Each structure stands twice: as structure tokens, then as C-alpha cells.
Amino acid sequence: MSDLDVVIENMPVKELHSVLKYSYFKGKDRLTLGITIKKFKIEITNLRSDTIQKDLKMRDITVNSIAFKVENGKIIDKPLDPTGGINDIHYRILRTYDKKNLRDDPLRILRILRFNSVLGYQIESSTLNFMSKYANLLKEVPEERIQREISSIILGKNSANALRTMYISGILKMIIPELEICGTFLHKDKYHFGESIFEHSLRVIENCETDLDMKLSALLHDIAKPLVYGKKRPGSYIGHDIEGTEISEKILSRLKFPKNTVKNVGNIIRNHMIFYESEKVIRKLAFKYDNILFDKIIKFIKADKMATNIKWLETEAYDIYEQNSRLGEKSTILFERIRNEINGKKIMECGLNKGPWMKQIIDYLHNYILEKPSRMDDFNVKIKLERELLFNDEYSKFRYGKIKTNRIKEYFLDNKVFGLLENEKVLNIKTGIFEFNYLKKKDYELCLKENSGYHILFQQ
Fold it and tell me: Are 134 and 109 in contact (CB under 8 A)?
């Protein structure tokens, strides 16, 4: 038990607040007093009606409608159970005593589903009908309160069954309407045997650890499949990871999930289709994200693969996955060297200023090493940049093959460099980092006038 509800008679809770240290009012009505002791929560209210029996009949479900009379710290009578809650506990049933209890507070619909998910109690049939009937009232509930209940539901040990109930009853579409098509859209590939996207997602949820980022990712990771099906290749879902990331982030933001949760879920979904059998792909992934998020992405891939193929753990692909999943911890020293030797400071020492081009340069150099770690053995940032950024010794001195001259001006626009050389040589050169376009003086000045949003990369 993690919380306790107390009803007091003959003393308003507002007066009790002045007596109880560390107590606080819950809600704007100041009718409920809260006390938190470590993780144990106590809520104290006065009677809402003229008798305790009537109060109990107004509560969300019968198993929460049992009371004991307490005086001087002792229970002095048999339990009050006007709704049959003790019987429902025995049979593990979730039942509301009166449908008005759901209509008057529709968040209770999700609370019942939370108990269903966390405790594994079954929802009584008429109660489920009432929940479905009043599901549209959830639109009136603040998103923050819905988000807290959804988080608890999806983390419960029976979350897949609870979410399936939410879908069938029409409750889920009131909260995440984007998922509605996922229950009727059947996979048409050879790997999923015609199962719906939603059912596949529930299996992934069951395979995930009890982690909110991973469970939310499981629910939403294939949400874009119906939208991209067959667009780029007949029978394929190409691009569902990227489009699904955008849709999922919008959903979670709308439901007021913490920004870090939105970001983590987006990154898990964006990377759930990566080529995990490639060492360099996994090495880049491990370098890009912190250890915790990398671990979540890797474990999510496993949960997804197992939901598609129950014998995946017996395949050669799984052995490769296991081997590559440890690349992050094996590459700690390499990653530290890369970060120490390839950074903005080192690049600026070559004569470049700070600007939006800096990230593109750094990312290129990082990937150059990550693709083949042995390159780090004799790597020199300056020598590599001289070759890729076309200079000799310092950035102002242009060099390309036998062409040597001085840079006069350069600007950066749409990841391309436009410049003017001292000899006004007209050149178009593509390197691993940029596309360089050098123009005559009059053409350079005309180009400046016709474009906006550029950044000065170099100027003598």
C-alpha cells in the first residue's frame, strides 16, 4: 500500500492544516489535505455528503470504497463496505458502484485501467461499458493528468492487456487518435503473418523492460507504417521510422510528457531500424548518444525483433547483435580520444571562425574515424582539414592541386561555400565536407545580393 485516504468528522480540514506539520492542500478548492512521508501519501478530507456510506458509494471503484472507523489510533469496528468491495477484492474485480462516478470524474476511467494494468484485476463488464460510453469526456481532462495515468498504465505488468482494452473500448482513440488505424491495418509482409500493427506493438511492450521511454517507444514505433506503406517501394514501409519519430514527438508533447522523455522516445524510434549487424553503424550510434540512451536503443531493437520472430535468439543475426551491442563499452578509450583531439578548438587553430559550418566539419571528422578506428593511430586534424577544406598551412591560403592563391571572401549557405579567390579563378569542387563554389568578383557580389540568410565564413 502506497497511499491512504482519511475522512474526518467534526473538524474542517482547513483547521487541521494549521495543526499538521508538512501538510499541504491538494487542488484549488482547498478541500483535500495531503501529507507525504517518504513515498507514502495520505489524503485527508471531510465528508462530501451527510454519511460515510454515501461518500463510499461515490468513490471510483468498489475496492477503493471500504472504510474502517478509527479512534485514538485504533480500528474500533468492522469494515464499512456498502458497495461489496471486499467481495470484489477476493475475485479480483474492478467495478464502479454507479455510472455517475465515472461521468462526474472521467479521469477515473484511466484510473480503473491503471489498476487493471498494475494489479491485473479484471474490469467488470457493465463498468467497461460505462467507461466506453463516457470516454469522450476524457477530452475535458487536462493533458497533464492524462499523461500521469497513461505512464502508470504502460508501466504496469499487464499493460498490453490494459492497452488492448483501451483500444477495443474506444478509450485510446480519445487520447491518441493517431493509433486508431494501427488496429485495423494488417501487416502485408512475410515477417508479421498478417497481424495488426497495434498487436505487434503490444508484443514489443511485453518484451521491453519496465522503462517509460522504451514502453512508449514500443506503443508508437510503427505508427507511421500505414502512412508510408508502398510509397517508396511496393509492399515496403520505408521511412516509417523517420515519419514515426515526428508523429510520436507531437503526440507526447501534446500530452505534456517531459521534454527529455519526448526526446528519448524520438531517438529510440528514429534508430529502431538501423542496420545493427554493422559494426560501424553501432559504433557511431554509441558515440552519438550517452550510455543510458544507447543501451535503451539496443535493448529496444531486441524487443522489436523478438516480437516479430520468436526464434530470433537462435539466429546468427542475434549473435552479431550481441557482439555489436557491446561496442559502446569496448570503445570508451577511442571515444575519449576522438572528443579530445577533434573539436571546435582544434579546428579554430587552423584559422576558421565559429559558425554553423563547425558542426558539419566536426561530424565529418568524427565519422571518418568511427568508420575505421585504426585511422586514429596516425591521425592529424590539420593535415586532414588541409585536404578537405583546400588550404595550405592556414585557411587563408587556398590550395587545390597545382592551384595556389589567397582567399578573399567566403560565405556559407545551405551547407555550401561560395567564395572569391585573389586570382578570381572559377571553380566548383566537392570534398568530403563541403561543396566549394568560387566565382568572379561581379558574380560573387551578385550572388550575395540575390541570397539572404548566409553566414560569413572567411574574410580577409
Answer: yes
Q: What is the pLDDT of residues 318-353, one digit of tens each?
A: 999 999 999 888 899 999 999 998 999 888 888 888
Query: Does residue 430 sit within a domain?
Result: yes
Q: What single-letter DSSP state applies at residue 183?
A: G
Residue 425 included in any domain: yes
- Residue 436: which of 389, 402, 396 has the closest Cα? 389
| Rounded to 5°, angle at Cα 213 from 303 and 136 | 105
CA 429 – CA 437 distance, rounded (Å): 7
Cell, residue 191: 515477417
Model's pTM, two decimal places?
0.88
Angle, CA 77 vertex, CA 71 and CA 78 arms, to 5°: 145
Q: What is the dihedral of CA 241, 246, 247, 249, to 10 degrees?
A: 110
pLDDT digits (tens, 9 = 90+) for 38-94: 778 888 888 888 888 999 999 999 999 999 988 887 888 889 999 999 999 999 999
DSSP helix, strand, coil percent of the chain (3-state; round to 5): 50, 15, 35
Residue 125 domain flag:
no
* Range(s) of the domain holding residue 429: 391-459
pLDDT at 28 over 70: no
Contact 412, 459 (CB under 8 A): no
For the segment 400-413, what is each residue's pLDDT rounded down to a tens digit? 999 999 999 999 99
CA distance 293 to 47: 48
Total domains, the chain? 1
Burial 348-374 (b: 16+ CB within 10 A, else e): eebbbeeeebeeebbebbbebbbeebe
Question: Which whole-number Å values give the CA distances from 157 to 46, 120, 163, 216, in the listed order?
Answer: 35, 8, 12, 14
Share of the chain above pLDDT 90, in %: 74
Output the CA angle 445-449-451, nearest 5 degrees.
115
Q: Domain for residue 408, yes or no? A: yes
pLDDT of res. 72: 80
First vs last C-alpha separation in the chain: 72
CA–CA dist 52, 82 (Å, integer) = 10
- Determine the Cα–Cα distance for residues 242 and 273; give it in Å rounded to an integer: 10
What is the pLDDT at residue 84? 96
